[in-house]
Amino acid sequence: MQRTSSVLVGVTGLLLMATAVPANAADEPTAPTSRVAPPVVADDAPVEPGSVTDNPGAGAVTGSDSGGALEEDAPIPGETEEAIEAPDPEFPGKPGDEDFPDAEHCETARFAHISRNTKNTMSVKYKTFVKNDLNSSVDFKFTSKKSGTTTVGASINISGEVKVLWLGKLKVDVNGSVSHSWTSELGVETGGKVKAHSTVKGDYGIMKENVYGYVAMQYSNCRIGAKQYMDVWAPYREGWRIHS
User: What are the boundaries of the region Disordered (predicted)?
Assistant: First the structure.
């Protein structure tokens, strides 16, 4: 995870300093090659090794819709956590005036600070499965048939201004693909070979970049006020998860 500068919001209004949020930060991504991730296969998935593809054959058995609740934070295979050993940010102050040439002065501003990059998860929008009762493997195909939307958010109530603050921080320091809002696509396919006497499941959803950290205010004397800790997430991609 690359860490660079910090993003601040001034108390007089929405003011991004040090690192500006791109003009299209609140827009959904449009590049088709970046929207959909390759299918992610769990270690316990009952599929033939190397068979899962995003271009399944036309004669494959199609998946059946699954019932039950959709998971908001389904695990993504291979995701890890990373503790961020970084001190509180120090923002450049202003030089003192002629009466106080050495005075310490900083911009009064709110800032976001990441303490831990937690495991990314998937907000599931559609679930399907294929059951194979035969004595040999069978080609299967899943197609996303339901859509949904995921937006940037936090574990506590935060204002839209603070959401923009976090979005800018995530884009610069963690994942340049995060978006304010993301709506999943219909008709995205994946497939492979399900093993004999097995049931393979597929979840289609939106992947969320997750971090833990705090928002605080830095005052004009360069002191930092009370820290408000929270879990934060933002959508960054969509795709299939194949599992047992």
Answer: 24-74
Question: What is the spatial distance between Cα 88 and Cα 112, in angstroms, rounded to a whole number?
Answer: 10
Q: For residues 153 and 196, give the distance between their C-alpha atoms in angstroms, rounded to a whole number.
A: 42
Three-class DSSP category at 177:
coil
The candidate with the shortest Cα–Cα distance to 66, out of 238, 239, 202, 241, is 202
Residues in the chain: 244
Torsion sign across C-alpha atoms 30, 230, 223, 10? positive
Letter for the amino acid at 126?
A: Y
Q: Report the distance separating Cα 167 and Cα 56, nearest Å.
A: 36
pTM across the whole model: 0.80
- Predicted confidence (pLDDT) per residue in 89-115, tens digit: 666 655 555 555 555 777 888 999 999
Burial class (CB in 10 A: 0-12, 13-18, 19+), 148: middle
Q: Where are the beta strands (DSSP E) in 92-227?
A: 109-117, 121-132, 138-143, 149-151, 153-154, 181-183, 189-194, 198-218
